[in-house]
Amino acid sequence: MEELSRLEESRRTADILQAKFDLSEIKYKPKMKCKGCMEWNCQVPEHQPSLCSKCGQIVGSHRDIPYIEYETVICRLNAADPVWWWEPLVKDEHAHPKISYQSFGETGTSAGLWIKLHVGPLVKLGVGEALVPSTNPTEPSDDLLEELVRDAIVYTASLMGVGTISQLEAI
Ligand SMILES: [Zn+2]
Ligand SMILES: [Zn+2]
What would the pLDDT profile of 1-59 be if each residue is shown by its tens digit? Predict the structure, then answer.
């Protein structure tokens, strides 16, 4: 009996997380299609940068990729479980979230943070990533940690079905 109610609770939580978004909640970001446009020196007349009404940016030839903003994701998590929470998967010796770094030589370093997201009875692992300019990071800044946490929450929520492409394209 208890097992059944836990399953029902999981389904109820998943249904709230996976519900469709209103059109007004969906934002768009441009994804460039052409190398010349990416480098801002495109010679194709039809590719000249102009203000796009969908993503609101002045860009050349591109596709508009739908996404859900962090604040909207948080609202959805709150709706599913007002006491949702996250924890770092790994902690350092000071019990702080442990950030892992991967260097790409000249181009910089990528920082990553793995988290466990708890929403009602659901638990998922996910990672947040950010580029850091320094190739030899020492103490992570508060800004970096915040960026990683935000990215990790949005990504892990998407694994629970918040803002998946099918949800966005079905509209
Ligand atoms: Zn172009
Ligand atoms: Zn656009």
Answer: 567 798 999 999 999 999 989 888 999 999 998 999 988 889 999 999 999 999 999 99
Q: Which residue has the tokens 């659901």?
A: 122
Q: For 2-110, where are the alpha helices, taking DSSP H only? A: 2-18, 35-38, 70-80
Region of residue 105 (phi > 0: left; psi between -120 and 50: alpha; otherwise: beta): left
- Report DSSP state, residue 91: B
- 8-state DSSP, 51: E
Ion ligand 2 contact residues with beta carbon within 5 A: 30, 52, 54-55, 64
* Distance of CA 120 from the midpoint of ligand 2 (Å): 36
pTM over 0.90, yes/no: no
What would the DSSP string read from start to end of 97-145? BPPEEEE-GGG-EEEEEEEEEEETTEEEEEEEEEEES-SS--SPPHHHH
CA torsion angle for 45, 33, 68, 52 (degrees, to 10)?
0
Would the CA dihedral through 107, 113, 119, 124 be positive or negative?
Answer: positive
Query: Distance, CA 38 to ligand 2 centroid (Å)?
Result: 14
Distance of CA 42 to the CA centre of its chain: 30
